[in-house]
Amino acid sequence: MKDVLVIGAGKIGGAIAAMLADTGDYKVAVVDRSSEQLANIDHHPAISTAPLDITDEATLQAALKGKFAVLSAAPFHLTGKIAEAALKGQVHYLDLTEDVASTRKIEALAQNAERAFIPQCGLAPGFISIVASDLASRFDSLDSVRMRVGALPQYPSNALNYNLTWSTDGLINEYIEPCDAIVEGKQVSVPAMEEREEFSLDGVTYEAFNTSGGLGTLAKTLEGKVRTMNYRTIRYPGHQAIIKALLNDFNLKNRRDVLKDLFENALPATMQDVIVIFATVCGWREGRYLQETYANKIYAGMFAGRKMSAIQITTAAGIATILDLLAHGRLSAKGFVRQEEIALADFLSNRFGKVYDPDLMRMRQAG
Predict the structure, then answer these.
(1) Cβ(31)–Cβ(49) under 8 Å?
(2) Burial class (CB within 10 angstroms; exposed 0-12, middle 13-18, buried 19+) of 201
(3) I need a surface site. Which of 183, 279, 294, 297 has the fewest CB within 10 A?
């Protein structure tokens, strides 16, 4: 059994711990500064919990001692401190951050690291970069890469057509911070909440617009190799217009604490959600202009013996898959590892990553 430390006992951290412990291959220690959050972690012989303030460097180093890896499910603004501790403690580091600045800091830390540093191991950024990179590899030359992901309620019931399904801080960060894109072959920064589009999938109409962080490191990897590349978040129509009014007309983009309070006290959370993933790549192969697409919807369900929301399943399965590949020698064990360096076939064949295989899911539903 490999000993791992999960930092953050929220819904995602709890799902990660449950998935890993259920295999019998991992011993999981979960830490959080909130005793209330720790009390919600599943009781399992392979899971232990302890209160810990990660701003206390000595205590954090003690918790890391002897661990194979640390998995950060903490808010994005804490990832840098955890990565620094992992470097000092010589343990592998994985996180779920969507924050661009945090990822750049981790990349810098990893330059001479003796262990692997793998940020952005969730859904978007994360899996969406793996699938887009795989699609892009099928072409002789590229024209466009379009990546679209949304975590949505199955049964929207308010004007925003939205329920809280994951980190409020992360959601706000995506709605406010600048977004990476490639335009005419060059990496540029574009504003969040702009360039709205509509599309339909399985008879349902969605809107999509720029949000920060979803491209991960893929923009840097494909700069100069593709004419156009962008990432947009999927919502039901009408969401973007209201959010833009809150951010700009009410100036809540400069009052994040107020915006967070509004979201958490006016938007109910839900376990009845659906993840929509839509990636399309266009380019040339053998002289023909062609398109390749990955489209999938993943719903809430049972995993590791417990009911999980779709965002729990996809996010926790993402980081668990990458930990598994690392533990089995399928990834570089030192330095900075980009999501697009991970083979899609390896990911989908993994015991956790199979939740992203649309063919397997269709077979299960048919059975």
Answers:
(1) yes
(2) middle
(3) 183
